[in-house]
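User: I'm curious what two different proteins look like when written out as structure tokens. Can you demonstrate?

Assistant: Sure. I'll show them one after the other, since each token string lines up with its own sequence. Here's the first protein:
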Amino acid sequence: MVEQGQRSWAFRLLGAVACCVLFAVAGIAHAAPTLSGNYRDVHPGDEPAKVLAEAWTAPLPAFDPARMQLFPTSGAGTWVIVRALPPWTTGERVLSIHNPGAGKVSLYYAPDDRVTTALDDFGPPLHGHGRVAFAIPASIPDSRPLLLKFEPSDKAPGAVTISVDSWPDYLGDDATWLVFATACFAIMLTMALMALCFALILRDMTFGWYAAYLVCYALIQGLKSGFVFHPLELQMLAGLGDSLGTAATALSVSFAALFMLRFCKADDYVPLLRTPVLAFALGMPVIATLQMTGVSILVSTAHLLLQPLLLLGAVLLLVAGAIAAARGSRHAWFFLVGWTPLLLLTALCGAQLQGMFAGAPWLPDAAIAMGAFEAIVLSIGLSDRALTIRHDRDKARQLADADPLTGVLNRRAWTDAALATLEEGMGRPVALLFLDLDHFKSLNDRHGHAAGDRALVAMAGALRHELRPSDLLGRYGGEEFVALLRGAEREHAVQIATRLCRRVSRLDVHVGGNEMLTVSIGIAMRTPADTVQSLIERADQAMYAAKLGGRNRVVCSGPTAPTLVRSKAVPTK
């Protein structure tokens, strides 16, 4: 029932996320257009004035600047003309190009006056957050066409949208995006840091692979959006965005595969897919290495193999996670809820670069948000894993510390706990009780070892009932038990020991004839010179004195010899 409830919750959450994405893609509303645009390839001998004149006299391919458009940067680049539609305004404005990719873009204020910038540019021009921005002075009327040139580049182009806004609108939109992106990246990196801490504390590489995956994904989105350049100002990464992004993409899915294998327990639930997933995880770093070599044939090979392998690997991880979840892997459901929407958005963003979903310019930002969502979901799953590991370790420690028959502390665990108690100092008195069942050998001989085991279990239960939770009770060996009483003075310890004798007598365990199962108890009070071993030895000597004195009695060790403090513990019916 619990697993069915988890599956139902996972399916509802996954369905809600998928529906939001699909409905937004299918039914996005368009505001009234404020810009129109035309474009054409750059030809040899082109001049800005000639291109603007041609735009008035010859029909050029049109596009909607508010919808995502892919401008080729191969060859000599692309000319883009943007016109503001009436009613026109006056004043300073800002032209923004969203998601421009890693290439450079130029704006011509005049035929001989242009400004060139890029996401990774740290020069004088205006730098937007998540966009390429150009300041338009008030001297350029709103009715005048603006000429842009997407410069030739061997780097991957972006599917862009273009807008022209007043300075207040631009600053408000820029601040909103900056807060949004900062929050998303902060969530991803915080979750990665938390996972790294868990990896070090628990010594579990599942958390380490997850932290590495999150860092790579945050780097990918930071490079695509330009966040690592502005506002982070990581100038050392300028010019490396394309190659570094490709390497980070390959490594991210490699780390995701290694994480999935351990997190979803692929060895137990999907053993047949373990080898393909592991091969994929080990192969992607090879692709990243080829990409970083700079050798043209190796780079071309890596670029050719990267996208097909990414697609196959992502689907493989999804299938493996789904099978593991169906076969009972609790954590596979967390993986599916976090991985599936992110995989869907990644596929949609890739389709945008092929000219699809032009009416969903928010998809690149959604990919950033979905990275934060996945980080939260999988971190919850990892927290659940950490609690499970802790529970299993506590259970294993409890089993290792407990006597398997009686359930009290075994000799080793009791000795360790007693040592820790004595190391607390002499601030509180400590009494040690050494208990030994009387005629226990006779009980085993006459009634069998099963009867003896039942007597030991009953004895342990009686002792637990009489002692305080803070008292340390353990089985020392055979029919011998020890109890360390914190804060018990001599008289109090004797009273407790006498009560224990009476409680054992009332168990009504017949040894044979008229003999009943009883216990003899020796008491030793801790002195400054005592160790655990010396305290046990004195209590043991007192217990033997109780045996010699007739059994079923309490003897407390004195400064020189054991002292009988009660002649006999007579049971009360």
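Here's a second, unrelated protein for contrast:
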Amino acid sequence: MTVIISGAAVLSCFAAAWIMFGLGHVTGLFVPLETQYLYVLIALLLPVVFLCHSASGNARVNGVPSYDWLLALVAFAIPFSFALSADTMLVEGWEYAAPDYARWMSYVFWALILEALRRSAGFAIFAICLIFSFYPVYSEALPGILRAQSTDLATTAGFHIFGSESILGVPMSAFATLVIGFLIFGVALQYTGGGAFFLNLAFALLGTKRGGPAKVAIFSSGLMGSMSGSVITNVLTTGVMSIPAMKRVGFSGRYAGGVEACASTGGVLMPPVMGATAFIMATFIEVPYSEIVIAAAIPSILYYAALFLQIDAYAARNGIQGLPRGELPKVRDVIRDGWYFIFVLTLLVFMLLYLQREAQAPFYATALLIGINQISKQHRWNAQKLLEFVMAVGKMLADLAALLAGVGLIIGALTLSGKVGSIAYELVKLAGDNVFVLLLMGALTSFVLGMGMTVTAAYLFLAVTLAPALTSSGLDKVAVHLFMLYWGMVSFITPPVSLGAFAAASIAKSNPMKTGLEAMRLGSIIYFLPFFFVLNPALIARGSWGEVALVTATAFGGIVAIAGGLQGYLPGYGRVTNHPMVSIVIRCALLIGGVALALPGGELTGLSHSTLLLGGVASIVAALGLNSMQLRSSLAAKRDGV
């Protein structure tokens, strides 16, 4: 085990140093070619997969067998030799005319990438990437929309390994220039006690409120999830404290698990970090990352508002109170012990949005965080902690590098075969130029792919195949790509997969499927939000300030009504009648009115803001009027002794 840690740690340290030099953070004297930079990075990270994962794909706990040392050595040697030949590669055009020895090395490297992908990401995505990577070779034998002119194996391998649109394409380029820094920052935040700080701050602020522990889960998971970018990590980090606290005050195990799963899922959609996919999105559609942050802000706030309102309504209906003040930390003490987390986060946001330094911001924030942490007696690292941090960073970067190289093979195969443009055309033709049919196809495909692939992989596949069809139909480009990201996240809270809910259920000791169904109901707004903002981009702050304000205000009002319809309780009004038949009618009317309010008006919906507003208000007023009549009738019946 010591050999594994030492080998992986050394490679991870070299990878971090190469990133700093390659991106010019340490010195501007050395600026490698982009292909050279990417090859060396792959050479340093890919061997870590073979050292840390056994042939079965499990995390290695024993020594490394000789064949894995050999694979790790070859995984380092081949891309490193390509980096040394980067100039020659460009001049001689190895992408289409590589020398014989390089061609044979490309075959071996192709196989190594697929094997690393199988070990780190699982068999399902390995099988998908394997089949698609060979697609140009057998495409002529396929029927219909899949048919394309075939390419020989040597040309396909050259395009994959030496070209700039496959393993060295957008996924790997975004990873190497933007994603890495934020991943390192997220790990540093966890290892310096950031998770405990956000959780304690949430308990101090919200722990005594009605249904307090559930509101704590929303606040802490939203903050921590935004930094870590991982749903499962978020559940396991904050859920171990929030879920038992929720159960203690009266929430059922499945409800507590559902709350944590929804809160952790939303964290990945919450600026400023949002996980790896958002950075790849910015690179793919060629917009500043700050633009993605601004666009994602309003939908993520609306999502958490809906979750908060539903929890408050549930607690009110069931008389669930908060925790005693004496058991909770004080806000003053929490901020005194962890003020630097707020300071570092502020620096990160300032550099992202004001200075527009997306690539450099996380490195400065990480350096400041670790520096201040070493001054703090409570969280100061020793040599063992430092080694654990380096190992965690190295393993995370290696696994993601293998994943993105594998997804790059899919993109490269579709590009080489010329199917990127034709698939978009065929999809538009299949939908009959109907935008709503295209959106439904996109939502369903994103959900299905999200069950079998990581969100990043599913997004990239759809960004190449489906996004052009949607944008060519007149939809906003940023809105379309956020739409696919949101629907890719849905699988984390939707049975039968619902990995986030299953992870929370293991902590809550509840039935995983029931927990998934509870999470699906609580997070139901996530199924509507993407349609709202893709039909009118004003909801992602792409429009005049007046229109953005109007759409946001009506959307918030709609979410209040939707939460009231789902939970049978409206804040400031009270509970909906318990009469079985009347209650269903009232709650459905609230849901319909809420959707009408939240749905933005515009050309694509065919209805104006004012029409939707009037219709929504009328439905809600009718529901509340019917509810008041039923309550008066019930009181009269009780008074008369009926």
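A detail about the second structure: The first helix runs from residue 2 to 22.
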